[in-house]
Write a structure and sequence with these properties.
single chain; about 240 residues; mainly beta; 15-stranded antiparallel sheet; disordered N terminus
Length: about 240
Amino acid sequence: MRSLLFATALASLASSAVGAETATYDLSIRGFHVGTVSYSGEITDGRYAVTGRLQSGGLIDWVKRIRYDGNSSGRVKGDRFTPQRYVEVADTGKRQSEAVMEYRGGVPQVKVYNPPRPPGGGGLDPAKQGGTVDPLTALFAALREVPAGDACDLTLHLFDGKRRSLVTIGPPTATADGTTCTGEYRRVAGFSDSDMAEKTRFAFMLALEPAGEGKLQVAEITMDTIYGKGRMKRR
């Protein structure tokens, strides 16, 4: 997925908020530590706000440093998230970029996308991406603590300002070690021909653990990546 960048801290939220949480995951690929993924999110009176960061570390820092910071906010009802504003800033070690999207009636409006897309450079029409969520909202929706009866079983249509993708997560399954659910990330449209030829479907599995008060949280994610098997382990 695209790097996640979280440049703006959460505004102060009402004390009646439910579901406030923070989480940090150690990210490894082929057994080598390559960075951390973290988020801080809160839901209050039908509204949500979340910030997040992807920070490279370990072996990959010897080659290049990568960072993504972002924040998103909007409305939520059950497991349905409707973003209202999304901001991301990324540094891949070779290129710096930023994006700002605002939403009107559930339809994204791309306010900033730097570096600008060249004429004829591809990308989807934002006006046709109604009902999608930004990458950070998708991360929060998939990983946040939820009542055990609401875990997994989620479909998310993503739009990052240029590309559309799909995340599907199946219903939870009880195992000897706890609860798991399988899922898939799929590139749908707006990607380059080389990206689509490389790989379009990425399987993953979530392992959940009790979080107290009858809730479950995602303890570990194992996933396919273009670099090999990846793993996110909650601290």
